[in-house]
Amino acid sequence: MTGKAYIRTENLRKVYNSGKPDEMTALQNVSVEIDRGLMTVLKGPSGSGKTSLLSTIGCMSRPTEGRVLVDGKDVVKLPERFLTDIRRKKFGFIFQQFHLIRNLSVLDNILLPLYPTDIKPVEMKKRALAILNKLAIAGKEKLLVKNLSGGEQQRVAIARALINDPHVIIADEPTAHLDKKLAAEFMQILAGLCHEGRTVVIATHDPFIYGHSLVGKTIALRDGQLEKEL
Amino acid sequence: MIKHLKIIDYAITSLFRRKYKSMAIITAFTVVVAALASILLFSGSLKREAAYVLGSAPDLIIQRIVGGRHDLIPLDYAEKILKIPGIGEVNPRYWGYYYDPLTEANYTVQGTDGNAETLQLLEGRLPAGNTECAVGAGVAEIKKTGTGGELILVNSRNTGVLYEVVGVFSADSSLLTNDLIILPNETVIDFFGYPPGKATDVAVQVYNKHELQTVATKVKKLLPDSRPITKTELVRTYEMVFNWRSGMMLSVFSAALIAFCILAWDKATGISADEKQEIGILKAIGWDTSEVLALKFWEGLILSLTSFLLGTIAGFIHVFIFHSFFLAPVIKGWSVVFPDFHLTPYLDPYLVFTLGSLTIIPYVASTVIPAWKTAITDPDTIMRG
């Protein structure tokens, strides 16, 4: 284990519907390291356990067995409110379907993570507009998300992930709905975030991403197990 | 504080975002609350008016019963009753009902000895001469008369008698005076053709109000053909009538209540996929379970409070401005033969609290409970559906 690791998993096992007829083991004995300030890709075919691993290290679900260490602290047994705090302060999520609230404005979607905080609305808006500028979608803050193109929606999703100034950006199949040009733009944005010192973790089966020169580390999964780590 | 204001702001935004659904819920909820409020306000006001009437009623009314029916009472009964210890005052009363076929209404014709202290005259004075009368507002309205006007009634000899209206009553309770025609005692005796030495009943005032039942028993023992009616019995009878009527109306509206309960149950047992998804998103991006519940609480409270206020105002307007045009025929019942009377507007704080508790709390609970069931689940599980 190196000291660079920001997130580390040890012998992770994740079982869905445990004890039921449709029980399914998504992860089996997975130990990986996500390095600080690096772009790490989790690759593998559908059903290989990428999303399960991503949601486990992102504190969105608990493993059935094993440990997850975030910044050196085991988070598996932490009460829910601490996991929420970690999600709020340390992680920014970009989901495969973007998971934006479609009939809410761009600005409100971006501000969502800041609503349950004591940050003043004026400060919230200032932050959001700065990020919108950075992502080249300034001027669209009042539009409803459902009226945006796929590429614009993804930028809104990225903006929402960045509004809390997180240490780690977690993206699940981020290019699944994008053409090659938009996918390239997306990678450039993520590269910029890495340059700022943020850690980026992407789960994908898109060869364009895991073959990209900006990727610092690739973790290959198959059938819920670690296949190789490059 | 800022955090909670922002959550409330987001709750309002969410309700506007689902404006058609929100409006549909508010409309249905408002109708239910308005129906409930109308029933409770109506029966509550009737009870209040009845209590007012009974407040000025004598402690004891003594009637004479012949063949199981109310008959005129001999005046010497009053003298005998006066000799019972504890009795302060005994007054023979002369009154009767008068049916007017022209207006198809029943009036109460009551005699006065010039002293009607419980009744407030809106204008004019009490009748003094045998051609004068004072009338309630309902009578004045239906007979299109007023102070200085005339009133023609047909007496027991089938002869039309012209009275000059010298006063119109305005009591705090229109229930008390609405159908009332006041004539001097002698005029009432003549009008109804009552035999000399007899009255309709006898009003008795008792010094010690706790002794009412004892005095009533003594009267019954002294005069076996009498029926003493205590004020307590009158109050109980009125309350039973009004409770029964409002209870009946509540039964009628139980269909609406059941529909509303089904809606609430439906909400309590599950939330839509979109709502679940939204809760999952909020949790994933850093909302705590308590913050999600606060959001749902405010959503439920804003919706139900809005509906409650609108429904209560609608109920108030229905009962006190539009005179309960939906409810009146059923709940008033006997008013079809009375001149129509209007209730005095009154909003009982206890009633408002009861109505609020019965509507807001169940709705908020039915919003928060299913959200809680979702919010305690891992965001990953929620978003996977």
What's the SSE blueprint?
The complex is a heterodimer of chains A (230) and B (385).
Chain A: E1 5-16, E2 24-30, E3 33-35, E4 39-43, H1 50-57, E5 65-70, E6 73-74, H2 80-90, E7 91-94, H3 106-111, H4 121-134, H5 150-162, E8 168-172, H6 180-195, E9 199-204, H7 207-210, E10 217-222, E11 225-229
Parallel strand pairs in A: 4-9, 4-10, 7-8, 8-9
Antiparallel strand pairs in A: 1-2, 1-3, 1-5, 5-6, 10-11
Chain B: H1 2-17, H2 19-55, E1 60-66, E2 69-71, E3 73-74, H3 75-82, E4 87-93, E5 95-100, E6 105-112, E7 121-124, E8 132-135, H4 137-142, E9 150-154, E10 160-169, H5 174-177, E11 180-184, H6 185-192, E12 198-199, E13 201-206, H7 212-222, E14 226-230, H8 231-252, H9 254-269, H10 273-284, H11 289-321, H12 328-331, H13 349-375, H14 379-384
Parallel strand pairs in B: 6-11, 8-10
Antiparallel strand pairs in B: 1-2, 1-13, 1-14, 3-12, 4-13, 5-6, 7-10, 8-11, 9-10
How is this structure best described in words?
The complex is a heterodimer of chains A (about 230) and B (about 375). In chain A, about 30% of the residues lie in helices and about 25% in strands. Chain A is of the alpha/beta class and about 230 residues long. Chain A starts with a strand and ends with a strand. Chain B is of the alpha+beta class and about 375 residues long. Chain B has 2 domains: about 1-55 and about 240-385, no CATH class; about 60-230, no CATH class. Chain B contains 14 helices and 14 strands. Chain B has helices spanning about 1-15, 20-55, 75-80, 135-140, 175, 185-190, 210-220, 230-250, 255-270, 275-285, 290-320, 330, 350-375, 380-385, and strands spanning about 60-65, 70, 75, 85-95, 95-100, 105-110, 120-125, 130-135, 150-155, 160-170, 180-185, 200, 200-205, 225-230. In chain B, strand 1 (about 60-65) and strand 2 form a beta hairpin. In chain B, helix 1 (about 1-15) crosses helix 11 (about 290-320), helix 2 packs antiparallel against helix 8 and helix 11 (about 290-320) packs antiparallel against helix 13. Chains A and B meet through helix 2 of A and helix 1, helix 10, helix 11 and helix 14 of B.
